[in-house]
Specification:
Layout: H1 3-12, H2 30-47, H3 52-64, H4 67-79
Function: Component of the cytochrome c oxidase, the last enzyme in the mitochondrial electron transport chain which drives oxidative phosphorylation.
Pathway: Energy metabolism; oxidative phosphorylation
Main location: mitochondrion
Length: about 90
Amino acid sequence: MSDSETVDLSSKYVLQTAGFDARFPNTNQTRHCFQNYTDYFKCVAAKGEDFAPCKQFKRAYNSLCPNEWIAKWDEQRENGTFPASLEP
């Protein structure tokens, strides 16, 4: 791969992580991950998937949560066994 190809790829993608959240000041981000996951689905239920602020919750949980957790929670939501309320 040439240098020009590398530059083209890097200009296509912007990598970001979740910003600082004062509710979660410690380095363990498990609760921050779970809160953003539940906040996303509450937001979607209240405002719809196209509501821009909802997308921030999704970006945050995708950045913070292990993929295995997301897959497990998605399965639990589908089965009606998710351990938290997702009502707005």
